[in-house]
Amino acid sequence: MGAFGDTVWIGPRMNYNIANDHDWLIPENADSVTDGRGRMFSIAFARDTIVAGIGYNDISGGESVQAQMGFYISTDGGRDWELVDTSRTLDHPDDTTIRYGGQDLEIIPVIVPQQSPPYMVDFRGDMVFMAAWASGIRRSTDFGQTWERIVLPPFGLDELNPNHNYSFAIDPRGDGESNEFLNFLGFSVMIGSDGTVYAGTAGGLNISDNAMEAPADSIRWRHIRQASGSQGLLGNWITSIRENPHDNAVWMTNWVSISGQDRDGIVVTRNNGETFEKHLVGERLYDIGFQGETIFAAGNRGVFISRDNGSSWRQIRRIESPNTIMKTNTTYYSVATAHERVWIGSSDGLASTTDQGDSWEITRVDFPLDGENQHQDDAPSVKAFAYPNPFSPRNHGEVRIKFENSTASDVTIRLFDFGMNLIRELDQQHALEAGTYEAFWDGTDQQGRKVANGTVFYEVKTGENRTVGKILLLE
Q1: Which end of the chain, C or N, has fewer beta carbons within 10 A?
Q2: CATH homologous superfamily of domain 2-363?
Q3: Shortest CA distance to 305 belongs to which of 286, 321, 320, 290?
Q4: 384-473 domain in CATH 2.60.40.4070?
Q5: Which is nearest to 233 in space by CA: 208, 209, 198?
Q6: Could you tell me the pTM of the whole model?
Q7: φ, ψ for residue 39 (rounded to 5)?
Q8: Mind listing the pLDDT tens digit for each residue in 199-247?
Q9: Using one digit for the tens of pLDDT, what is the confidence trace for 340-388?
C-alpha cells in the first residue's frame, strides 16, 4: 500500500482511491495485474511518476513460492502503464564474478524469478533501487531498462569500501554453517531525502552515502547489525524502512532473523545511523507511517500510535467503526498517509482515520443488502445475512451478521440451536442510528463453550422489526 497526495493505492490489484471517494478504481492498461496472475508487492511515487513492483505466486516442488514479474511504470499519474519485463533484472547464467573495487568477487548468479519478488522499490529521477530477496539489492540508472547487482558486505563485515581487498563469495543460498549470506538477502530499500541510500536485509541495515552517483563497483556501505550490548538495531531482519517527512528521521521495522539477542520492534535514527532509538520492543511490526509528529506502526497485535514522535505509544488492539469492527485475530500490515487521512491495511480490510486514531472508518468489499449489485446481478434484497456461511470458528475466527436498521432504535441479536434453544445473546446495541451494521459471533455459547456443528438460527430485532436467518456451523 502507498499514497501520494490524496490518492491511496493498494495491492494486490493496484486499486486506488481518490480523496476517500466511495468508489475504488481499477488501473487501465495494467492487464498483468487486473486480468493476469500479477500482484503488486511494492510501490513508490513522485509527482506524476509511479513505479510498482509486480510479482506472483508460483508452484515449485508442490509449494507456493513468490516470484518476480517486473515493474509497472506510469509517468502520467497512473493513467497509462508500461510493464518492464522481470528478465532485465536477473543475472546471466555465465555471470560467475562481479567487479568491486578493482577486483573480481565470486557470485552465484540468480537466473530465475522465483524467490526474488520486488519486496520494496524506491526511485529518484532515473535512479531506481529494488530489494528482491534472493536477488539482493539491484539498481537501475536508466529508469528500469537495465539493472545491476549491488554488492553488500557479508554478515560479519562492518563496512564495504572499494579501496579495500576482499575475498568473499556472494551466495544468497548460504552454506548452512554460517550467517555470512544473510546480508545478501534484500528485503527493503529507501532513498533518503538527503540522497543517503538505506538497504535492509535479513542480516542488518546497510547505509551508503554515494550509492546515488557512484559506479556500482565503487559504492561504499556501512553495515549495522544487532549484537549483544549494541546501541543499534533490535533485530537483524529489516523488513521496512520509512522516512518521516516531518523531521527526516528514518524508522525501520526489526525482526528476529537468527537466534541469540535478536528482538522484534522498531528503531529510528535521526543522524544517518550514528545512533538509534528502540521502540515497541518485542512487537512484530510490518510497516510504519507518519502524520507530522504522529507515528503509526502496524503489526500482529494491533496498531500502535505515538503522537509525540515516539516518546510514548498507545495500542489499538482491534479497530472498530460505528458500523463494524475488525476481527479479533486481525493482523495489520501496512500504513499510508493520503493528505489528511491515514490508511491501515489489514487481513480484514482497510481502516482509515482523520483524527490520529480517535475514530475510524472501515472499508471492505461491500455486498449490499438491497440486491442487484456488481457481485451478483440477481442477488435478492434482504434485511440481514451472515458471512462467511458456512462458518468455521477454527478457520474464520468470527462470523459477521450484517443487518439494516431502518430507523433509530435499540437492536438485539440472539442465536438459537435447531431446537430453538437460546445459545447466546450478542451484546445489545443501544440507540443505533438508521443505517447498515455488523455484529460478530465467535462460535461459542453464553458460557464461552464451543457450539456443536449444525444449523444455528439468528434473530435480529430492530425496533418493531424482526429478521431471522441461519448459519451452518462446521468446525
Answers
A1: C
A2: YVTN repeat-like/Quinoprotein amine dehydrogenase (2.130.10.10)
A3: 290
A4: yes
A5: 198
A6: 0.90
A7: -135, 145
A8: 999 999 999 999 999 999 999 999 999 875 567 899 999 999 999 999 9
A9: 999 999 999 999 999 999 999 999 876 665 655 555 555 566 778 898 8
